[in-house]
Structure formats: C-alpha cells, structure tokens
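Take a record:
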Amino acid sequence: MTHVEGAEAVDGPADGSATAAEAGPDRPLRHNRDFLLLWSGASLSFLAARVTAVAYPLIVLWHTGSPLAMSVVSTAALLPLLLVQLPAGALVDRWNRRRLMLVCEAGRLVAVGSVALALAAGRMTVAHLAACAFVEASLAVFYRLAERGAVRNIVHPAHLPTALAQNEARGRAAGLLGQPGGVLLQSAARWLPFGFGALGYLASALSLLLIRKDFQQERADRTGRHRMATEVAEGMRWLWRQRFLRAALGYVAGTNVLFQMLALALILRIKEAGLPSVTLAVVLGIGGVGGLCGALAGGRIQRRMRQRTLLVGGAVAWALLIGAMGLTSEPVALGMLYAGTGFVGAVFNVGASVYQVRTTPDALQGRVAATAGLIGSGTNALGSLAAGLLLAAWGAETTVRSIAAAMAVLALLAVLAPDLKGEITDDRTDKGTGSITGG
C-alpha cells in the first residue's frame, strides 16, 4: 500500500453541509437544480467549443490547401494545454470559481465573435485565426478546471460518480454533435460555426448567473501567502506521490499525442480520397457515437476490470483499430473504427475523473487537475505540429500506419512498466486515512 501524504480522500465538503449539494442522497441527481443548470450550461459551452475547434483547421485547409498552415492553427489551439495549465490551476484555486467561469465565457464570446465578423466581411487571415484559437483555448483551460472543482460542491458526495459520468457523456455528446455540426455549418457559410459558438458561450454565461450554491468551500486567502510557483509545486508534489497515477499519466500523454496526429490525418485522408468535406461530418458523427456509448458504460466497466487491464488492453485495441484505419477510406468503415477508439477513451476518462476529484482536497483541485492535464495533454501541440510535417512528407495513409505502430509500442511499454502493475479502484481507497492502493 502506498501512503499519499497530505492527500485527503474525500467525496465532497467535509462537513456535508448544504454547500455540497441541494439534493440529499435519498433524492435523484435530476432533482438538483443547481447541478442541472451547471451541467446544461457547460453542455452548451462544450458544444460551442467543439463546433469552433473543427472549423479552424477546415477553413485553413479547404481555403489554402496547405496541411502545414492547418497544423499551425491547430497548434495554436493546443498550446494553452502546454503553457496555460499550471498557472491556471493555481489561479483557479485562488479565485472565485463562478466569477472566473463568467469571465471565460465572455472572453470566448468576444474571440469567436471576431472570427465570425471577419469571415463574413471576407477579411480573415491565418494569423487572426491562430490568435483567436489560442485565446479561446486558453480561456477553455480556466473554465474546465473551475467547473471540475465546482461539481463536488454542487452535488451530494453520493452522487459524485454519477455526476462525473454525466459530465463525460456530455463531453462525448458535444463531440458527437459539434464536430459534424461544425463541418456542416462551415459548408453552409464559413462564419456560421463561430456565430454558433458565440451564442453557446452567451447561453452558458446566463446559466451560471442562475446557480445559487457556492462553487467552492470557504478557505483562507492564499493570494498574499505564497508565490504562484510555490502553489503550483504543492499540486505537483501531491500528484507525484501517487505511483500508479504518475505512470498512467505518462502513458496517457503518449496516446494523446498520437490521437492529435490521427485527427489531422483523418481530415487529409478524406481529402486525398477526393471526397467532399461533408464526408468528414459522417465519419465524425459515427465516431462520436462510440465515445458516447463508452461514457455511458464507463462506470460499470470500471467496477469490473482492473485499471492495468484497461490501460494495456485499450492500447492494444487502439493499435489494431488505427492500423485498420490506414487500410480504408470508406466513410462508414472509418467512422466505425473511430467509434471504437472513442469508446475505449471514454471509459478511461470516467474512471480517471471520479478518482481525481474524490481524492484531491478541494483547495488543490485546480492545481492537481492542471498538473494532470499538462502531463496528459500538454504535449498535444507537438502531435499537431508533427502531424503537419509527416502528412506533408508521407501523406495520410502512411502517417496513419505509423501512428498505429507507435501505439503498439506504447502498449508494450505499459505491459513492462512496474508502476502500472498495481490498480486503483473505488473500493480500495481508504477514505479514512487518505491511503491509496497502487503500484
């Protein structure tokens, strides 16, 4: 058993007061008004982000024909995961979460609104797209860290797994609707995805104003007591003490790089096959169904399988599915294979979210989530840039096969990693002492 010093394995506010939830454990989560407002508003925010995310590279590729220019804009949208995560985590733990989320939605509304106006006027440039993609993604980092920490103060501790599973399903549904929706809107008019995004962020901000409960526990003012670097290091130390999670995050970082490369390769694969851009909507739509199904089934699967089995088995499944994607350009087949990769990824995310939110003290939620996000996704920008170079040199088919080979190598490394030979499950978490079984 590995003891995690300083970790408080808690499901919610320690006193179980009303700040934890409006509805008690004897009432279903659907009766929790504040959670429903938070969930629905965040759903619109996630949907808006998905619509604009797919529109950025599409506009660049279909109107410049340059895979490298496409990767530049995509890299700009991913850089905040590398540059903004850690300071955002510290600031989220300092600031009022509700006010911060409102500022984020207002800022994203302005950013995507400027893109919509520029496109409608015919004055868009790649530099403008890249700048707005960076701003929108930076504010998204703050919003998601704050929202993740707010959930456990809005719902009763007994409802936390269900709430986080619904959040994962929400994100997958946003991908299911937003990615093909962004393609269709862009096909109708270049400015439409960004106009839609502006409306989504506005509606999300309005929902935040209607929530009555506090988004965090009362805490001492930390602003004048510690430097930001000290506070960031505190979250890093907490995470470093957990061997299994530490190793798992390294594995996830590698897979996320490969999936970022795959996303761009998929766009070029369809273009090289001479298919219309609407074909991408079909592929993404089918693929999104797999992610949604994985989110809905994630809780049950996590209870029946060891964490290591999920990690290693998932990597093997991903390698096979991606390898098959390199052998076909048929839209339905690509969509089905993409759905398989999404199913596995969603199952991972449900278990990881429940574990991290439950075991992390409320005052460390932002910093721990930011550190995990930096390790897991911060290198995505490298994947996007590498994809542009490989696609320009090799084309989509060879690049996809190379991604499959790299995924197989990661699966082998996961099998051999000693720190991944333990497991962490809810029933093996000692909530009384903060001790976590792993490695």
